[in-house]
Amino acid sequence: MSSNNEKGARDHPEISEKASFEGRESLIEVRDVELNSPELPALNLDLNPNVNLENPLTLISREQLLADTETFAKMHDLSEYTETIQKGALVAQDPSAFETLPMLNEEDKRVLRREFTHKWDQPKTLYYLVIMCSIAAAVGGMDEAVINGANLFFPAQFGIEPPPGKGATREQWLIGLVNAAPSLCCGLFGCWVSDPLNRLLGRRGTIFVAGIFSFITCIWQGLTNSWPHLFVARFFLGFGFGPKSTTVPVYSAECAPPLIRGALVMMFQTWTAFGIMFGYVMNFAFRNVPDPAGIRGLNWRLMLGSAGVPALILIAQVYFCPESPRWYMMKGRYPDAFRSLRRLRHTELQAARDLYYIHVLLEAEREASRKTPNKFLELFVVPRNRRATLASAIVMFMQQFCGVNAITFYSSNIFVQGGFSQTAALLAFFGFGAINFVFAGPAVWTIDTFGRRNLLLVSFPLMAVTLLMTGFAFWIPESSPAHVGIIALGIYLFTAAYSPGEGPVPFTYAAEAFPLYVRDIGMAFSTAVTFIFNCVITLTVPALLGAWTPQGVFAWFAAWNVFGFLATLLFVPETKALSLEELDQVFSVPTHKHAAYQLRTAGNNFRRYVLRQDIGGIPPLYAHEGALGEDASGPSS
């Protein structure tokens, strides 16, 4: 099956909105085809508590649906919106067939068509929410950057400056420990308190508390008088990082429409990159600040304290955003949820559709959760959840072991070791931050079209090659002008490869991979994975630079990028352009079957595009791929 009219409308805006939807009516046919139908490959779905969550509304008649929605409106103090909710429920039952629904007038149909033909036309409130989440991301990015600059100054003041040319030393381990303190706290405590905080305070309340911790501890860092004191201040900074990093992507995912959800959620990582870039500006601005009487190290203290500024802006901004409608509904506050959705959607019809669809899926998920009350255990014992956990853990692990944070935290030291002056090192590091931010831009436009998985598969090989290039450049004699230039070029090319792929994808992927009833604990686990391994990287890189030299360190991370490519190919399914609740079909394909299919597809692509053989395509793995007419033999499979 294919949707040629819809694709034509995307490629040629002159095609009418209505014409662009004629092809979408075929989508629902997939839901009505038996799994053993010759029209589709056997999906071999595991039986699990989530399998009925794809769209529970398709299992009931329209007459029963209208009766159920009337009862629903009365029970939840929404009687005045009964007709609107009934319309919305009919649209949610069969999203592709709204043109044939007699209850909808022409204005209703125009609005629904426009969702697909003008997907970036969203209410200002939604974009304000995105800005708030972006500022939350910039807080973390700034701290990563300012500690990089401070590394050039505080070790000498606190007596832990490594002696040159002595391999891995105690001083290098202590610098790594100070740098790793927030990640250590996040992995052990910060990420895990996000679940109770979210249940008690909601998404906005959790972000507010995280902002308070971030602001206070950033100021605290600038007032420390020893490396243990600085370690403690940075450790408590993790109580701001953890809940914020866990909650903000989930909050964005729950509020964003499916067609642009990936782009909006990935703003978290994009603006983390902006925070890194702005942190480098602060490093350069404060590098030569003189010490007044009675104060030592005012320059690095101002660097660390400056990261508290965006945290203060976040605190002032967060309560002007609507709360997550899904959180309201989990608390039984349906009128509040409808008001929240009304602020996040253009019309009452769209809000009512999403409200009722979330409601029925919540009911199905609650039934599933009763079978295994331990939510953390469900991440591993329920097949659908286990596959989401594995895929999320892979992309989160690789966000650290791709090598980016070795550069983010220690590039100033690496540049100095490569022959740069301190000022030149800070300027070069600003280039790293600027490229990181600028090259994250393409992912905003491609993550919901090219896909999360494809961005990763392109990113990993490029990162491996550029890391090897950077490491090899350290063998060029320092007397050669090419020595410094190739080192900087290699790091910049690595950043350009990282920023649109492994940079923004992990948090987006983890925020959408889990069903709602385990989403908080699943996101907490995924975020804990990335912070634990962030701690490992931050702690060990100074010692590795001393023991292995930069050549060995860059080669080590290049090898991990090869592993990341293979793990993504075999175990990370695509999640683009599906509603949060429709991802169950994707994660219901058994892991070994998904891996075998991807190996077969890779071999097919090699024969087609490298050997130039004329071979047939491979049937799609998922029903929605068949419905959209995607060629499974291509890279999106």
TrEMBL record:
Residue span of region Disordered: 1-23
Keyword Transmembrane helix listed: yes
GO MF annotations in UniProt: transmembrane transporter activity
Q: Is this entry keyworded Transmembrane helix?
A: yes
Basic and acidic residues biased stretches: 7-23
Where is this chain's protein located in or outside the cell? Membrane
GO BP annotation list: myo-inositol transport; polyol transmembrane transport
The cellular component terms of Gene Ontology attached to this UniProt record, alphabetical and capped at eight, are: membrane
Question: What is the predominant subcellular site recorded for this chain?
Answer: membrane
Q: Which UniProt keywords apply?
A: Membrane, Transmembrane, Transmembrane helix, Transport
Quote the catalytic activity from the record: myo-inositol(out) + H(+)(out) = myo-inositol(in) + H(+)(in)
Domain Major facilitator superfamily (MFS) profile span(s) in chain numbering: 129-576
Q: Which residues cross the membrane?
A: 126-153, 173-193, 205-223, 229-251, 263-282, 302-321, 390-412, 424-447, 454-476, 482-500, 521-547, 553-572
Bilayer topology term: Multi-pass membrane protein
Family to which the UniProt record says this protein belongs: Belongs to the major facilitator superfamily. Sugar transporter (TC 2.A.1.1) family.
Which NCBIfam families does the record associate with it? SP
Q: What is this protein called?
A: Major facilitator superfamily (MFS) profile domain-containing protein
Q: What is the lineage of its organism?
A: Eukaryota, Fungi, Dikarya, Basidiomycota, Agaricomycotina
